[in-house]
Design goal:
By secondary structure, the chain is α/β, with parallel strands linked by helices. It has 11 helices and 12 strands. The strands form 4 sheets. Strands 1-12-9-8 form a 4-stranded parallel beta sheet. Helix 6 (160-167) packs parallel to helix 8 (193-207). The chain is globular.
């Protein structure tokens, strides 16, 4: 039963040690006992297909599970023809480099929650996503999953319910559940195991057990205001949730095999190790209880 832990992008320590290339990341992560890496294309897909293929090969050799985060400029619900064209381009280009990396998924932000009623906005996003999925299939890119991410502000498209509905547009669409974002958007709801369990039950009920079994998760401490997410924090800073322990207990109890990507501010890899160790402790504590 393998749970994959790793960072979104590179920690400050990666560069402080004199490393410069993402091609060095698989070895660096493996040395820390991490086995996942989400390559960041937030400001644009600036990696070549050739370099992506090299990175994917190195990651496979070190047992690192790859994913890609698509550019932030994506907006599925926009009616602006130029924005729609750029959204299509960003997603298809992300899928191409992800395929070269042998990445399992491309995570993306669904877009704005403005431009009409919430139902109208979501329906527009679903229709456009279906178009992109069809084009991806025509270009031979359907082997990589698309993963709309839950967002940290209520003004944005991306509640868990909305993400689940986007996933219902096609079998190659899966949820990317960012519990830091959900914690911020709900004003700090995620403090009990039951809070996480309700979301897991909803995903399983609406999408199926297989979607839950291999769920793509983002996790990091988040500071929030009344409007939602303000900034990502780290485990070294007190007072910022959510706490990973209840989620770790749930993952272990249900024997799930998700990918947990950490987006802590500058400490992505270090905090991924913190979360991994919490999970391993939960597993060990469970074994002790069984022996007794």
């Amino acid at each position: 039963m393998t749970v994959y832990f790793g960072p979104a992008g590179a920690s400050d320590a990666f560069y402080a040690e004199g490393r410069k290339s993402s091609l060095e990341m698989p070895d660096w992560l493996a040395e820390r006992g991490l086995n996942a890496y989400e390559y960041q294309c937030g400001r644009g897909v600036n990696i070549s297909v050739e370099t992506a293929a090299r990175l994917g090969k190195l990651a496979a050799q070190r047992g690192i599970k790859m994913s890609v985060h698509a550019p932030y400029y994506i907006n599925l619900s926009s009616t602006d023809l130029e924005i729609r064209a750029k959204t299509r381009h960003h997603l298809l280009k992300s899928l191409k480099v992800a395929r070269a990396m042998e990445a399992t998924a491309v995570v993306f932000h669904p877009g704005s929650g403005s431009g009409g009623g919430r139902r109208e906005i979501l329906n527009r996003a679903k229709a456009f996503l279906k178009e992109i999925l069809l084009e991806a299939e025509e270009e031979g890119l359907s082997g990589v999953l698309l993963a709309p991410e839950t967002m940290g502000k209520r003004s944005l498209l991306g509640s868990l319910e909305e993400v689940i509905e986007l996933c219902e547009t096609g079998s190659r669409v899966v949820p990317a559940v960012d519990f830091g974002h959900l914690y911020a958007a709900t004003g700090g709801r995620y403090v009990r195991r039951e809070d996480f369990e309700e979301d897991f039950d909803l995903i399983e009920r609406c999408l199926g057990k297989e979607y839950l079994q291999n769920l793509h998760i983002h996790f990091s401490p988040v500071e929030f205001t009344g409007a939602g997410e303000k900034r990502h924090r780290t485990t070294l800073e007190a007072g910022f949730g959510p706490d990973f322990t209840p989620l770790a207990e749930l993952l272990a109890g249900r024997e799930l095999t998700p990918t947990v990507i950490c987006e802590s501010n500058g400490r992505q890899a270090e905090d991924a190790v913190v979360y991994r160790d919490i999970y391993l402790k939960v597993l060990e504590d469970g074994k002790r209880r069984i022996k007794k």
